[in-house]
């Protein structure tokens, strides 16, 4: 199967999941996670109208962004170090991985220098996995309130990386929890904080994530095939 065939098949499953959940497919953005994959594979998708791509490393994102069309919307989905913020803040349309006030301060500062306002999500470790980045669910509201006071950053919602599992049903409750958390935070009506984005679901579990309210799913392997980290 070609990258385009894979993409279309994932897109069809997105539509079916929306139908099951009584949702409009236009509410869900399918982000093609192109990390480790060559420019040529990204270019294959452009004629289909695909514009949302996800990367987890600053250097890879900026290199690809320099070469490819400025129409592409780059999503920074990986852990972000403060010293790399300046390279990515004007390249990424959305930073999915904010997990501390210090990182948010750096993003606000660098965005301000470039006369921009950065859009970000708070990354929540809903399953409490030791190995994962992200804040605990109970930290999300206090952190959102602190970040809301910064001038050049806007929180748009929440992101989570659910545990790896063979059976996506195992993650349904985690997605439900993230959704509930976003509703709770939205009810606080904090200035500069909206909760319209729920970034959750990857190749193994995006259909369940959509059934539970995902607005952005991040699919890599299902579109580009397995990643080879040994080369
Ligand atoms: C790699 C990655 C994905 C995509 O994972 P697949 O299982 O290949 O779909 C999604 N989100 C994040 C944060 C990632 O790092």
UniProtKB/TrEMBL annotation:
Pfam families: Ala_racemase_N. It comes from the Bacteria. The modification N6-(pyridoxal phosphate)lysine is found at residue 35. PROSITE patterns: UPF0001 (PS01211). One of its GO terms (molecular function) is pyridoxal phosphate binding. Residues 27-227 form the Alanine racemase N-terminal domain. Its cofactor is pyridoxal 5'-phosphate. Keywords: Pyridoxal phosphate. InterPro entries: Ala_racemase_N, PLP-binding_barrel, PyrdxlP_homeostasis. Gene3D superfamilies: Alanine racemase. Pyridoxal 5'-phosphate (PLP)-binding protein, which is involved in PLP homeostasis. Belongs to the pyridoxal phosphate-binding protein YggS/PROSC family. This is Pyridoxal phosphate homeostasis protein. It comes from Blautia argi.
């Amino acid at each position: 199967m070609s990258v385009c065939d894979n993409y279309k098949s994932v897109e069809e499953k997105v539509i079916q999941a929306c139908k099951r959940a009584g949702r409009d497919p236009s509410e869900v953005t399918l982000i093609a996670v192109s990390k480790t994959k060559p420019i040529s594979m990204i270019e294959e998708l452009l004629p289909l109208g695909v514009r949302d791509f996800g990367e987890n490393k600053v250097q890879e994102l900026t290199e690809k962004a320099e070469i490819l069309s400025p129409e592409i919307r780059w999503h920074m989905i990986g852990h972000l170090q403060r010293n790399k913020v300046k390279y990515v803040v004007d390249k990424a349309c959305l930073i999915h991985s904010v997990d501390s006030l210090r990182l948010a301060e750096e993003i606000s500062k660098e965005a301000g220098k470039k006369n921009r306002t950065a859009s970000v999500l708070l990354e929540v470790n809903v399953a409490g996995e030791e190995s994962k980045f992200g804040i605990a669910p109970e930290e999300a509201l206090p952190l959102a309130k602190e970040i809301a006071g910064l001038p050049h950053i806007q929180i748009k919602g929440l992101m989570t990386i659910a545990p790896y599992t063979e059976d996506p049903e195992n993650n349904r409750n985690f997605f439900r929890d993230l959704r509930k958390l976003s509703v709770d935070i939205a009810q606080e009506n904090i200035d500069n904080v909206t909760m319209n984005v729920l970034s959750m679901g990857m190749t193994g579990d995006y259909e369940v994530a959509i059934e539970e309210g995902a607005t952005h799913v991040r699919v890599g392997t299902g579109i580009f095939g397995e990643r080879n980290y040994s080369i």
